[in-house]
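Data availability (excerpt). The following record was deposited with the supplementary files.
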Amino acid sequence: MFRTTIAGSLPKPAWLAETNKLWPQWKAEGADLADAKRDATLLWLKEQEDAGIDIVTDGEMSRQHFVHGFLEFVEGIDFANKVKMGIRNNRYDAMVPQVVGPLKLKGRVHEVEAKLLRAHTKKLVKITMPGPMTIIDTIQDSYYGDRVKMAMAFADLLNQEARALQADGVDIVQFDEPAFNVYMAEAADWGVKALERCIEGLTCKTAVHICYGYGIEANLKWKETLGDSWRQYEQVFPALAASNITQVSLECANSHVPMELIGLLKGKEVMVGVIDVASEVVETPEQVAAVIREALKYVPADKLLPCTNCGMAPMPRAVAAAKLRALAAGARLACEAA
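Predicted structure:
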């Protein structure tokens, strides 16, 4: 009854990159690094299949960071002269590259990962990319002088790659927009319009992942300021419900998001976060099933996809693998009880 999936990222093995870090350094170079990325991708594909995950991803094994993994393939960006920049409304600082000229793809971005997955699994395949609003909140603009104009330029590039991914046999293209929970008015105004540009011409399913961030210290501290009721989704869900996006995610496990907000997504498939990525405590199947049962009060069973709250890139590998198994087991338990 329930098709399980994950938000996207998984921990990199120690032989590929530094562990437990959001911006890890690679352990190899050149052809050796390419081989290591391929091996890690296949490893996590097998882990997902063995756990019982229905819609699998590449785990973002080929990307150092979920945003910059895309930016590395874009002309008009200066990586040599990074600047310090506040991200997510100055929640934390990072050294980021600069946009210094017209944006253009150098070539394909995720062709290798997409074709590798498609050749090695019969399951549904999902590839994730950063959304336009989140990209422009993670890079310095030294050229466009206009946030919306730059976001739309990135949306055109994302659409170009998304169309190619569809041709590669990808079943779902997902755009990650954690910035939607920070700049809510802008998200409802032009952020969703930028997403619409990203999916122009696509016939495969499309998704947008919106969360409260990885389980890193800066995000945990921010969550403590949000009070007992997290209603950020309330401002953007109506705009998404009216959009052509197929699937929308929300963070539900151990969060203060009122579950009834799912009702604002009528007609959409909903990725319900049932795995807490901010904790290394592995959920029991019963805990996962309980979140699913609560969500079923607001979304039909055939449109509910149990998912992780967010990516698991900074998490210990063994914990992430255990959480995959709990996700699938909890979905089966909820199905049996339905």
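Summary of structural features: Residues 30-61+113-134+144-337 form a domain with the TIM Barrel fold (CATH 3.20.20.210).
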